[in-house]
Amino acid sequence: MNLDEAIRGRRSVRKYTDVPVPDDVIKDIIEAGLWAPSACNRQGSAFIIINEREKFDELLKGGSAAFLKNVNQAILVLYDNRTDNLEYRDHIQSACAAIQNMLLKAYELGVGTCWINNIPNKKKLKKIFNIPWNYEPVALISMGYIDYKPVTCKRKKTVEDCVSYNTFGLKDTVKKDKKYLSLKIKRVLRKIYKAVPGKKLLLKFAGKYEKKFDN
Ligand SMILES: Cc1cc2nc3c(=O)[nH]c(=O)nc-3n(C[C@H](O)[C@H](O)[C@H](O)COP(=O)(O)O)c2cc1C
Fold first, then answer.
1. Best probe residue, ligand 1, of 77, 89, 115, 143 (max atoms within 8 Å of C-beta)
2. Which of 67, 118, 181, 193 is 20 to 30 Å apart from 203, CA to CA?
3. CATH number at residue 25
């Protein structure tokens, strides 16, 4: 598979067959992550392979993407947070570079994946997975085989829409108006939702408002 084909053909996949992805395939995917660039060449990723139902149930109980109900395999990506460049969160950027490599490799190997941030807050994740203080959870990657071919997703912008030379020149700048306030409110609500314990009732309610995607 050539690079362009991988970059353009990869899609987020949220429904998988019951056929498990073998451990050596998962490890190939993780190895692709290890080849990503990392700030100061720290190579500080760590990966927790999740394949026990109880762990998925705990993720769901703590407030996660509802489709995890039907997922049997995932990788939790962590990164060592001992960086002095917190302004640019270079540990998160390094983890994201690894994640994208992993998604592309998985696609090449015929494995469907979805990058997930709708997961419990970091404090809860650390408890569920016994994560030490210096590792920060960055994202969950769900995975499995698929029995359909996802449709290519059109881009919302062209290169010309996003590029300017030497100084910021895009026309679609947004004023800090009421919408910004509603975003602030959403951020607070999300924080509260992820923090409250025992949210059985809330989960049903939140499920209704979870963003729906096209597959
Ligand atoms: C940082 C990040 C967080 C994401 N979180 C979620 C998530 O919580 N739930 C989900 O279903 N998809 C999630 N996605 C997948 C996006 O919805 C998906 O990439 C987007 O809709 C474009 O579709 P495509 O990946 O098929 O091109 C996430 C993607 C990124 C990069």
1. 115
2. 181
3. 3.40.109.10
